[in-house]
Structure formats: C-alpha cells, structure tokens
Specification:
The structure is a single chain. It is built from 24 helices and 16 strands. By secondary structure, it is an alpha/beta fold.
C-alpha cells in the first residue's frame, strides 16, 4: 500500500508505520546513500575532502551544526541540500500548527484531537521540500518572531483567559518542528535572543510570556556565521556555542579548475550568448585568477573575503561585454577578447571591501591592477618565463615579437569596435606571434589563437617588454624604447 494513501491514524498504525526523529532520518538516509556510493551534496565543488566529510560526521553524530566561513562559501547551499537526506514524506496530524507526529503528538491541539477522534484522527503527508525553514538573523528579530507570543486577538475570539495556553501564537521555530531550521548570520542575532535558544537546543523547553511549555521539539538546527561578524557586529554567546555539536569551517576553492566549475555551473548564461559567443579556456582561467589575486591583494580586506559571486557576476559581465560589442559591429558570432575584461570592472568594484591603501588607490585602479597581476601570474604556466634580470645581448623567445614592434612602420592598435574580421586581420599582422605560438603552444585550439595572441601582448607589457596605451577608442601597443629612439 502507498503510504500517501493513508488518511487516518488508525490506517497508519495498521500499516506498521514507525516514527523516527529528524536526526535519525538524516543519519539513516546518509548511511544509505554512502553505502550505494551516491553523491550526497550535489553541485558543491571543492569540499569533497574537507567540508563534506566533516558535515557527514556531524550528521552521523546527530549534531546541530554551525557552518563558519566567509561570504560566498556555499554555507546556505549546504544547509538546503540536507533536505535531500530527509524521508520523502512524513505523516502530520491535520490542522496542527507545529507538524505534530500522529504517533507522538506534543501540542495541546493534537493531543485533544487524538483523544476525541482516536483512530479516526485525520492526517496528511508533508513532503521533504516543505520541511526547510530559514531565518536571516537581523538586529530587529524578536523572541516573538522565532519562539512565540501571546495573541490577544485569539484570546478574544476564543473567549479564553490569558492563563490558558491556547492563546499562544507560535513563532518560527515551533512551526518548524520536525524540519531543518537554518539561522543565517547567527552573530547578528542579539544576545538576549540567542539566550532564548538555550533550552530549545538542550532540553526542548520553550518559554512564552510566563508559560513554561514542555514541547520536545524535534529539529535539526543549522547555523551559519561569518568570522568577520565576530568583531564587527556581534558574536555567538558562549553557552549557545557550547550547545552546538559541530562547528565546520568552510573555505574558498583551492585551485582554478574547481573555481571554473563553480562559475560555469552558477553563471546565468542567456541562451543566445551561448550560441554565438566563444569563450577560450584561457579566458576562463584568467577570470578565476583575477579572483585569486583579489583574495591575496594588499588593497582588499582579507577578513571580509572575496565571494565566489564575484567570478560569477564577472563572467556574466564578460559575456555581455562581448555581446554588446558584437551587436554594434554587426557580427553574427564573436570570441571573447582581452579588452572585454574592462567590462568586468563593475563586478569587481561592487564586491570587494577595500582597506585604507585600496581606498587611496581607488576602486577602478585596484580592479585594473588585479587584471594585470592575473595576466602576469598566469603567463609563465603557458609560456617561457621572462626573467627580471637578463644578460646583455642574451637571446629570448620574445625577441622577434618585440623587434616587430620596434621596426613597425605604424602604430599597432586594437580598437574596441573592431569587427571580428578586422580584429583578426590586425593581430595577423604580427607574423612572429604565429611562429611563437606554434613553437610554445603547438596543441593549442586554433579557435582560441587570437585571444592567446592578445594575451601574449598584454603579458609582454606587464613584463616591460612592450608598452600599452589605453585611449577612448581602444588600445595601442608599442616598443617601449622604439618611439624614443625614432624621435632622436
């Protein structure tokens, strides 16, 4: 018999249904998934050997959990994915405000209804997707919001005195009985509100306006917190921290490949953009390297962190920059260019917290610096290293390219509004670049060649082999000394 067809407590007992706590549900379903080698937390990357094993251990231990980490580290996503470890449906006494278990009721309403109707008490089935409750901790949150209060309107309508516990209006936590309850940014919750959670976590008591109710709530608490909040806005009070079973530290992606996977998964790519904008792998690597540089930058507040949302927003901006350029130039398809990276600057400036030195430089300059540093960092992983100190007259792999600029009859410019054809034609003028790529990147995807050529030019600028000038219509590349000598 399908359990969801059962409509009364009598039928439920006859079917042999056995109740279990939410923590037992999570534990048993986790064990089942682990034994069948299923991926438990789908769509979360980079935590396979760090956070996820700790989270699984906490669930097996039936602990309440605190996820501690900087912004954009998938803390809330992990909490939401725990819903997949719940049973698909559970029975609930019909009409119960707090999801009473028909075989183990705890509210006065459910107990009286079962006493009155016995095995004919109606039940309904609650899906696991409806067993997740979430509250963002803000300074204006009250005890009434999360635990409950006396409702004078209910008292008047039911003609009850305030001494009767039926006048209580339950808050978010009792209403999330038998659910996963998440409190985001726990340190932002006022200390007196945190104190109200003590008994709920430990003894299962709730106290509302003098009513001492013994409600053994069956809940899985997940808290999230940002280490920055401990100093800026508040802290988790010690007795509450003591009652949270496991504190798990989250972190940012540790390598570019993981970061790329997250960005490609999360970015909101418009279907038309996917069709006509080609994105070289090097461009994706460069985008992620910019974020890595931001996390190490002396201009950016490391305590605040640099969210994974930066790379996601930046990638969306990058596609839109190329799309706008292609529309204006009338191209039916286009490739990401390095000049398009100017379009991601608003995504960077809006998502980083600058320290004093960064404020002095200015957000725009800091963003441009990050792009330059990323190019400089990434370059040696693809091409021969350019050493700071080189012997006089020593040959380098870049001599032919630099000489081309020295001997060029006219300035080399890449204009922003170049069509795809004009852009490629201009880069093809630098014949030594073709030979250079054949020698050092023989297996490179030919479609990516033009982006890589531009990448080499930008890198040579960063290593002081060429000079670059940005003007309103585009970018000009020159030999750093050629123009000076020609002038003489």
């Amino acid at each position: 018999m399908n359990l969801q067809q059962i409509k009364t407590i009598g039928e439920l007992k006859k079917a042999g249904y056995e109740s279990k706590s939410i923590k037992d549900e999570l534990r048993e379903n986790l064990i089942s998934k682990m034994m069948s080698n299923e991926t438990v937390f789908k769509g979360v990357h980079g935590y396979e050997n760090t956070v996820i094993p700790e989270l699984e251990r906490a669930i097996l231990s039936k602990h309440n959990i605190n996820l501690l980490g900087l912004r954009g580290q998938a803390k809330t996503r992990l909490a939401r994915l725990m819903v997949d470890l719940l049973d698909e449906y559970i029975p609930v006494v019909e009409g119960s405000e707090i999801n009473d278990d028909p075989l183990s009721p705890i509210s006065r309403f459910a107990v009286e209804l079962i006493n009155k109707k016995g095995n004919e008490t109606p039940i309904f089935w609650l899906h696991r997707n409806d067993r997740f409750a979430e509250k963002l901790a803000t300074p204006d949150v009250t005890v009434a919001d999360i635990i409950g209060d006396v409702d004078p309107i209910k008292a008047a309508n039911l003609k009850l005195s305030y001494a009767d516990d039926r006048v209580i209006h339950y808050g978010m936590i009792p209403r999330a009985n038998r659910c996963i309850f998440v409190i985001n940014e726990l340190p932002d919750l006022q200390a007196r509100i945190q104190v109200a959670l003590f008994n709920i976590l430990q003894e299962g008591d709730i106290q509302i306006r003098g009513f001492k109710l013994r409600l053994p709530l069956d809940m899985q608490f997940v808290f999230t917190a940002n280490p920055e909040d401990y100093t800026n806005r508040g802290s988790i009070v010690t007795p509450l921290k003591d009652r949270i079973g496991s504190q798990i530290l989250t972190h940012y992606p540790e390598d570019i490949e993981t970061a790329k996977t997250i960005t490609q998964q999360e970015a909101n790519k418009v279907a038309s953009q996917k069709e006509f904008i080609k994105v070289p792998e090097l461009a994706k690597d460069l985008l992620e390297q910019i974020v890595f540089e931001a996390r190490d930058s002396e201009y950016i507040d490391a305590k605040s962190g640099v969210s994974a949302r930066l790379s996601i927003s930046a990638f969306e901006n990058l596609l839109s920059t190329a799309e706008r350029r292609a529309i204006l130039s009338g191209d039916s398809e286009t490739m990401i260019r390095l000049n398009d990276f100017d379009g991601i600057i608003p995504a960077i400036t809006g998502k980083v917290e600058l320290v004093y030195e960064g404020e002095q430089e200015g957000a725009q300059v800091v963003a441009e610096t990050l792009i330059k540093r990323a190019i400089k960092t990434l370059f040696p992983t693809y091409f021969p290293e350019i050493k700071k100190l080189e012997k006089q007259n020593q040959e380098t792999p870049y001599d032919d390219v630099v000489s081309w600029f020295f001997n060029a009859d006219e300035d080399f410019e890449l204009l922003d509004d170049y069509s795809e054809e004009a852009y490629k034609k201009e880069l093809d003028k630098i014949k030594p670049l073709d030979d250079f790529l054949k020698k050092h990147q023989p297996n490179m995807n030919k479609v990516d060649a033009f982006f890589v050529k531009e990448f080499v030019l930008w890198a040579l600028v960063e290593f002081k082999k060429l000079s670059k000038y940005r003007f309103a219509e585009g970018t000009q590349f020159k030999d750093p000394y050629g123009s000076f000598i020609n002038g003489l």
